[in-house]
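User: Working on a comparison across species. This one is histidine kinase from Roseospira navarrensis. Can you predict its structure so I can line it up against the others?
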Amino acid sequence: MGHGSRLRRRMLLATLGLMVGWTALLWGSLYWETRLLTEQVVSLARFHAAGAFERDLVYRAWNARMGGVYAPVTHVAPNPYLKVESRDIDSDIGPLTLVNPSYMTRIVHGIAEERTGILSRITSLDPVRPANAPQPWERRALERFEAGAQDHTEQAVTGEGVPILRYMRPLTVDESCLTCHDTQGYALGDVRGGISVTIPMTPVQAIQAPTRAFSVTWHLAVWAVGLAGIAMGGRIMTRQVGQLEDARSEALADRRRAEESDQAKSRFLATMSHELRTPLNAILGFSQMMEQKVLGPLGTPTYEEYARDIRTSGEHLLALVNDVLDLSKIESGRMVLTEGPVDLGAEVVRTTGLMMGQANARGVRLDVDVQPALPLIRGDGRVIRQMLMNIVANALRFTPEGGRVLVTANMDPEDCARVMVSDTGQGIPDADLQIVLEPFQQGSNVSGLSGARGGLSDRPAFTTGTGLGLALVKGFIELHAGSLILASEPGHGTTVTLRFPAWRVLAGEASPPPQPA
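Assistant: Here's the predicted structure for histidine kinase from Roseospira navarrensis:
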């Protein structure tokens, strides 16, 4: 399985995982909200049950305060369980019977059940009336009341499958109760029994049915929209992953092609180094022999000039080959510095001494200014000499006759070692300052350390260049973690600065005073 296929598989699994997580989140939310709605239904039913209980207490309290009430026996049958002397009396309107609080409560309960479906009962663990004996759930509640509980609530389902709420609270003995129950041994404050209320849940549930339906619909809609969004996002991400994988594959192919090209270039340069240097060395050797007339006179001065031109061109071509090889090593990262202590001041003096003959031949004044006791630096001496030779040679090449080149070596205010080469050429336009630092690029105007892109035939031969000098110097100084700073003012000249970082300066190791070459 390829890398791209694995990524797409991971994206698919991630998308499915998000879908499962989203589904779990929404269904969890729906479950929680449904549970809250159910609890609200129970609370509402319990509130109604408590209201029914309180209403019964009010009826009982009024009846007890009145000492009971009399009702015609034509409407209310005498209570056989009420053992009082004045239970039944005769009146002008006919015989009457006493209705005490308990009897009145039973009558009201019957009316309420017919009108509302709410079933209420008076019950006790020691009932006077056998029909008031507790049901199993009422017995459990009464036992809890005797243990100190204040109320009891539970949910159940009838035999017909109707959900109901059972609610019960205790009845305690007060003064009015002793009239009928003094023979049972109760004391004031005792739990004499309780009133249970059974409420059908269906009407209460119907009140919240629209809210429950809306909640389900809302959750389903959000769930569906979320799933669609996740699916669309997963599809987009999968497409982007595919595009990234295609780009990655293309980049890898480009990298392989670049590596192959670099290897081909390295092989070419190695071949060029061998195949070109060998005949060039022969050309240079024979041209020098011709110039020195080792085998005798050449015959005419023209041949001597030709021999000199052959040597000069061969040296130029050999230098170009060496520069190309060095630049290739820098670009490929194969250039390795051989570091050690370097006397920068001595190298500057040595370089200017070697270039003095060239400066005199071109009518250019070459001066050197080295700071006394200039510290040694850590670097590659061969590379540093090559940098100095390149920038001084460039300065001489592009400085007109009668001009001046100044080479300065000192420490800057930040304790960095630096070499500055200034000339009095025509300067470099601002637009060309970056161009002249690129390989095989030259400035649009002949000036100081820059060259020109074209028009070489209309200026002296010594002003032509390969466009590699400053690019090489820039690569070499960056290998030393330093920098090349190019400053120029058109019409006044150019200054190139090689700046070595402070950590390359060897503290306490000063170079001896420079001796003129």
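For your comparison, note: The radius of gyration is 56 Å.

User: Helpful, thanks.
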